[in-house]
Amino acid sequence: MTSSIWTEKYRPQTFDDLQGQKEIVEKVRAFVSSGNMPHILFSGPAGVGKTTLALVIAKQLFGENWRQNTLELNASDERGIDVVRVKVKDFARTKAMGNVPFKLIYLDESDALTKEAQQALRRTMENYTQTCRFILSCNYSSKIIDPIQSRCAVFRFKPLSEEEIYQVIEKVAKEEVLTLSIETKKALFEVCDGDCRRLENVMQSCAVLGNMITPELVYSMASVAKPKEVNEVLTMAAKGNFLDARKKLLDLMLNYGLSGLDIIKQIQKEIWNLTIPDRTKVELIDKCGEVEFRMVEGSDEYIQLESFLAFVVLVGNKQKN
Question: Do 265 and 190 sit in the same domain of this protein?
């Protein structure tokens, strides 16, 4: 995902600036303080600080020379087996500048590396331990081969909590002179779902239209339907009003420009807020999974969504009887 201007502007420069992941930050800080560290694997969802922490490590280790001593490769770069054998190996075999005895190679989204490239990387990590350390970042650690995982200290990142997201919101709002209500902060937390990068992108998009940010503007900019409106659709269907629920759902998708996958994910979250028995909620969640799978496999999203609403109506009728 492309970073916004604000994401780069508010990117932390030191360990103290980092939000969330306190346990991981403390352990990594200890590595840097000692001037030595193992190979590291960062695993977790997008926008929670993996790349930022890797860059902070480089800056704290090498100071002004961090760019010369750090090689950063992203999934957007060519990273086949030849790149690992040539570019990575050439960088790894040369000595670092300054007092630190090793260089740093950061491979972002390393779960996109082919299995062959990972096998080549495994040998490179082994052979050049004296002159180089690797930091690998991925969304799914299961896609990294076991020999690489066993060579790394693995740190699993969590989405930022509501309190941590609020701290970021308040910092950005103060710097950019923005006016936000408590409802707006809650809306921002709901749409970003613990992803700090998405939060800053949405805030920047909203700020272009004015310094006063409202919940309606947040949902509109994030292309997300209001939870209240999704709840209304499900409630109508549960009461047996299939045609009204179908019309409301289509209006939501058109007004907010949502795809079938977008809306089914919102429906899945909102099911838990319905005033129906827990057993019924479980049945609806199970149906959500089935509908989402069919959409991913290429089924018509409107037909699938209508079939889901029809299922909600049938479940609602069972409750009445």
Answer: no
70 forms bridges with which residues in the sheet?
Answer: 104
DSSP type of residue 193:
T
Q: Both 98 and 201 in a single domain?
A: no
103: left (phi over 0), alpha (psi -120 to 50) or beta: beta
Domain assignment present for 114? yes
104's enclosing H/E stretch is strand 103-107
In angstroms, the CA 96 to CA 66 distance is 10
List of the chain residues with pLDDT < 70: 1-4, 6, 75-80, 320-321
Give the distance, in angstroms, between the CA of residue 156 and the centroid of all CA atoms in the same chain: 13
Alpha-carbon distance of 129 to 36, in angstroms, equals: 11
- The parent domain of residue 232 ranges over 227-320
How is residue 223 annotated by DSSP? Answer: T
Query: N- to C-terminal Cα distance for the chain?
Result: 49
d(CA 92, CA 161): 37
| pLDDT, tens only, 193-203 | 888 889 988 99
- Round to whole Å and give the CA distance between 157 and 41: 10
Are 109 and 190 found together in one domain?
Answer: no
User: pTM for this structure?
Assistant: 0.81
Does residue 147 share a domain with residue 46?
A: yes
Q: Which two tokens stand for residue 232?
A: 């209304």
Q: Is the dihedral of CA 73, 79, 83, 85 positive or negative?
A: positive
